[in-house]
Write a structure and sequence with these properties.
Strand 13 and strand 14 form a beta hairpin. The protein is 18% helix and 32% strand. It starts with a strand and ends with a helix.
Length: 304
C-alpha cells in the first residue's frame, strides 16, 4: 500500500474537492472509494468526503494495491515511441479508446498495454492501470504510461504543476484571424446534452486554459493551428476551438454538420509531449509524426 500526504494551501468546503485537485488521473468514483474505504485520514482520524478542510491541514492517503485487472491482455500492435523500467510513451492511433467504459473491456489501449508491457502502475485501479492522462478515442498522438506507482505519482504531479507540456495540432474550420492567443474559460457538462462538454459559468465547471498559435491558413477556408494545454479538461481543445467559432474539422460532437472530407473523427493530433523523467531527472521531449490521413488532407489543401 502506497502512502502520500497532501497539505491544503487554501480552505475547501469538501475534502473530495481538495483531493480531486491534487490527485491527477483519479476519477470521481475512484476518489469516492478512497473515502468509503477509510483510505483518507487527518491526524490519524478518518476523513469523510464531505468534510471541510482548512488551510494547513494535512490529508494522508493510503492508496490500496491494485486488484487483478478487469481488462485482459490483447495482442494489439502498439507504436511504442519510448520505453524503460518506469514508463512508456505511446503514439495512440485514431479510433482506439484509452480505457474501458460502459462494460467494454476489449480493444482499448489498456488491453494492448497489458499485452505489450511487462508492468503497469496500479494507482488508477483495475480499469485504468498505467493511465496517467488520456486523449480522446478519435484523437491521435502521444501519451505517457506509468509502469509503477512511484512513476505514476511523479508524472501526475508534473501534470498538476504544469511542468508536463502537451502540444497538439488541429485543422480548424474557417480562417482564424488572430495569429495567437490564450483561451481561458470554465468547462463543464453541457446542460442541454450530457454527452458534450461546454463553456459554462465558473461554479458549474473547472478552469480550462489553452494557448493557440496559427501555423498556416488555407485559401479553402481552413486554419492549421497549434494548441498548448495548461489544464487537461475533458474535450478541452475541441470545446475551445468551438468557442473560438472555428471547430476542429471532422469533430462529430462539436464540428459543423456538413463536412468537406470523409473522416473517422476529428483532425486533432497530440504531436509533442515533454516531461522530466521521474527517476533520472532528465528532461525528455517526444514527437509523433502526423498520421497519413491528416497529412494527406493538408497536402491536398496546399495544392489547391
Amino acid at each position: 500500500m502506497k502512502h502520500q500526504e497532501f497539505t491544503a494551501r487554501d480552505s475547501y468546503s469538501r475534502a473530495d474537492v481538495f483531493l480531486s485537485e491534487n490527485i491527477t488521473g483519479y476519477t470521481r468514483s475512484a476518489l469516492k472509494k478512497l473515502f468509503d474505504n477509510g483510505c483518507v485520514s487527518c491526524v490519524g482520524k478518518p476523513v469523510k468526503a464531505s468534510q471541510a478542510i482548512n488551510v494547513g491541514q494535512v490529508l494522508e492517503v493510503n492508496f490500496p494495491e491494485a486488484a487483478p485487472s478487469a481488462a485482459k491482455p490483447e495482442n494489439i500492435p502498439l507504436d511504442i515511441i519510448y520505453e524503460d523500467g518506469d514508463l512508456a510513451v505511446i503514439n495512440k492511433p485514431q479510433g482506439m479508446t484509452v480505457h474501458a467504459g460502459n462494460g467494454n473491456y476489449q480493444g482499448t489501449l489498456v488491453n494492448a498495454l497489458l499485452y505489450n508491457l511487462d508492468s503497469l502502475s496500479g494507482i488508477n485501479g483495475v480499469i485504468r492501470p498505467g493511465i496517467v492522462h488520456r486523449i480522446d478515442k478519435d484523437t491521435s498522438g502521444l501519451l505517457v504510461v506509468a509502469k509503477n506507482d512511484a512513476a505514476h505519482l511523479n508524472l501526475s504531479k508534473q501534470i498538476e504543476e504544469k511542468s508536463c507540456a502537451r502540444t497538439y495540432v488541429a485543422l480548424l474550420e474557417g480562417i482564424l484571424k488572430e495569429d495567437s492567443g490564450t483561451v481561458t474559460t470554465y468547462i463543464g457538462r453541457d446542460p442541454s446534452d450530457r454527452i458534450k462538454m461546454a463553456v459554462v459559468l465558473p461554479e458549474k465547471g473547472k478552469l480550462a486554459v489553452t494557448d493557440f498559435t496559427v501555423l498556416k491558413r488555407f485559401k479553402e477556408n481552413f486554419t492549421l493551428c497549434r494548441f498548448d494545454l495548461h489544464t487537461g479538461r475533458t474535450h478541452q481543445i475541441r470545446v475551445h476551438a468551438k468557442y473560438l467559432k472555428h471547430p476542429v474539422v471532422g469533430d462529430p460532437l462539436y464540428g459543423v454538420k456538413k463536412q468537406k472530407f470523409k473522416l473517422s473523427g476529428q483532425l486533432l493530433h497530440a504531436y509533442e509531449l515533454s516531461f522530466t523523467h521521474p527517476k533520472t531527472g532528465e528532461r525528455m521531449v517526444f514527437n509523433a509524426p502526423m498520421p497519413k490521413y491528416f497529412s494527406d488532407i493538408l497536402k491536398k489543401l496546399t495544392e489547391l
